[in-house]
Amino acid sequence: MVLILWLCVALWITPALVLAEPQRPTVMSTNLCADLLLLRIADPAQIRSVSRQSQDARISPVAERARAYPPNRGGVEDLLYFKPDIALVYQGWMGRRHAERLAGQGIEVIALPYTKNWADALQTARTIAARIGRAETGEALAEEFERRMQALARSGHERAPSLLYLRPSGGTAGQGTYVDDLIAQLGLRNLAAEQGVKGWGRFPLERLANTPPDVFLLGYFDQAQSPARSAYGRHPLLRSLLERTPVIELPGQAWGCGGLELLDVAEQISEQLADIERNPFRTPSP
């Protein structure tokens, strides 16, 4: 009788063990770029800590969500304190020289690659999701985001306006940057790339006077800048152009790090551009 009872208990427990989800690794992120990805793909129960940057609403689009987790400064001592199974860091993280010591404590350090385009962002999401035991979630998210981005692309029959991305310092984004790729994804033209700018460069004011864009795409103009760093943005020539040229302005924290958050940026650009095209004679307000 006792044997039969034990067999019944074993048969009842075994399916539950088989159906139970595997233990997923705990994870912490040590910089804003890693935070943005982790908060999208991880199970909340996996997250040990996020960087302090992610909780600063001035630079982080996910500040409210990030405040649900303990903050860290991104140092080796933080990793040793929180003891995650996996720590997400950036490529230049100085603590990487301590990787062997951290591995001895059971902490795997994964450096996120720099993204140059939308395809990179999708692949990074898939790769990191798989590393933290969330492969299905990462794949589903990447597929959904890819579909949404493709839906935003303009028809080849429509005239593609030229956009010029500008920061208050005069900085712009030329060929080979994720901003350039995003503009192309939307079926638009990047004036900086057309004018020969490669990478993260500067758009000379004299060239701007002779070759203005159809639409300005402003970034970080909402954030306080030192006089030296904002002189370009305050120049009378630029201010005059902004008064008579359509403007798309996004908050600086919206741009993130060129990851999945670029879909949010793309949707905002598409929405504002559609509004400009519906109301072409409305006075822009930079």
Automatic annotation (TrEMBL):
GO biological process, one term: cellular response to iron ion
Source taxon at top rank: Bacteria
Domain Fe/B12 periplasmic-binding as annotated: residue spans: 24-277
Stored InterPro entries: ABC_Transporter_SBP (IPR050902), ABC_transptr_periplasmic_BD (IPR002491)
Family annotation (Pfam families): Peripla_BP_2
PANTHER family in alphabetical order: MOLYBDATE-BINDING PROTEIN MOLA, VITAMIN B12-BINDING PROTEIN
Protein name per Swiss-Prot or TrEMBL: ABC transporter substrate-binding protein
Species, as recorded: Allochromatium palmeri
Lineage: Bacteria, Pseudomonadati, Pseudomonadota, Gammaproteobacteria, Chromatiales
